[in-house]
Amino acid sequence: VQLQASGGGLVQVGESLRLSCAASGIIFSIDIMGWYRQAPGKQRELVAHVTSGGSTYYAGSVKGRFTISRDNAKNTVYLQMNSLKPEDTAVYFCNSVPIKYIWGKGTQVTVSS
Length: 113
Known about the structure:
The protein is mainly beta. It contains no helices and ten strands. The strands form two sheets. Strands 2-10-9-4-5-6 form a six-stranded mixed beta sheet, with no helix packed on it. It has a four-stranded antiparallel beta sheet with strand order 1-3-8-7, with no helix packed on it. The radius of gyration is 13 Å and the shape is globular. The termini are far apart.
């Protein structure tokens, strides 16, 4: 099993990023897939998830700014992040909901003011 997140970077407040997570070794199409993040000194938290049918959930802190989507044919889940804030700074990971797989390395997102 491999969960490979990418697309992070250093951006300014108000800018956007699009994260991707490619999954291999799992039956991707049947899992609820989520994006999680972990900021320095904080616990990892669920940011958003999407079902195989496309239904979505967002944490209150990102609702209206982030959009999660998936492409089952490519075994990939995406996170479009708009209007980024300094408090969005974290390492972002993908995994199933509930968590079933070993964590990948994640991708660093840094929002500078």
